[in-house]
Design a protein that fits this description.
4-stranded mixed beta sheet, 4-stranded antiparallel beta sheet, 4 helices, molybdenum cofactor biosynthesis, MoaE_sf
């Protein structure tokens, strides 16, 4: 039976171990798609990103992530789903989010993983602050993230 695992944590995660959890006890999935988001440098020339600070609403966040996974299951025949998202202060090149999806076929796995990320960016209660050489700024939700979720 396919399972959904959702975690919100301060500690880093092991991408290999999470990938194995997507595969675990699921011989029906012929495709596993994973996505890992990491902290990257800002593109702006006039400042340099030092870290991100992510906050969430405990309990509500996990519920929202499970709801997003349920919506993906309603659209595609999926195996295991693993979503792990970090909070707290994260430095450059640190992991932020992992989404892993199993499915019998690659197209469904790719689409479901992208759907989960698009809806996570739109609907999960996370707040992000950029800590840069110019100070600290809470980041507004991007229109491009809202537009990406509209296509589903």
């Amino acid at each position: 039976m396919a399972v959904t695992q959702v975690r919100v944590q301060t500690d880093d995660f092991d991408i290999g171990a999470l990938s194995e959890q997507v595969r675990a006890n699921d011989a029906t999935s012929g495709a596993i798609v994973t996505f890992t988001g990491i902290v990257r440098e800002l593109v702006a020339a006039d400042q340099s990103l030092e870290a991100l600070f992510l906050e969430h609403y405990p309990g509500m966040t996990e519920k929202a992530l499970n709801h997003i996974a349920d919506q993906a299951r309603a659209r595609w025949a999926l195996g295991n789903i693993v979503i792990s998202h970090r909070v707290g202060t994260l430095s450059l090149n640190e992991n932020i989010v992992f989404v892993g999806v199993g499915s019998a076929h690659r197209a469904s796995a790719f689409e479901a993983a992208q759907f989960i990320m698009d809806y996570l960016k739109k609907a999960a209660p996370f707040w992000k602050k950029e800590i840069s050489s110019k100070g600290e700024v809470w980041v507004e939700q991007k229109q491009s993230d809202l537009d990406a979720a509209k296509r589903w």
